[in-house]
Amino acid sequence: xxxxxxxxxxxxxxxxxxxxxxxxxxxxxxxxxxxxxxxxxxxxxxxxxxxxxxxxxxxxxxxxxxxxxxxxxxxxxxxxxxxxxxxxxxxxxxxxxxxxxxxxxxxxxxxxxxxxxxxxxxxxxxxxxxxxxxxxx
Length: 137
Prior knowledge:
GO terms for molecular function: transmembrane transporter activity. The chain is mainly alpha-helical.
């Protein structure tokens, strides 16, 4: 979950990095996102073979390490091509991690609890009292 959240934050800040450092056109930002998505498709296709070859634990470790390296590469990128390469790797890492983590959770959850945990957490979240409105000061 932490890797997914940090990737979401990173992609949220990417627009600033893309427009201020890498290029000046918004269309370039969209193109960079397309490279991330291409990496995600590659990660989804590679995950079964990676898991078969390395096992779940090592595959999760590898995808987390790849995600960290891709993030560092993206931060260091000062041109669109290295940034695009880093985003492909980040897409591979993120999709591999997400798919492996969900698969592992499903495998570890007893059949009698299938569907219970998500419903329970949604009910708990919806039972929270609403937060008070904020004043426009």
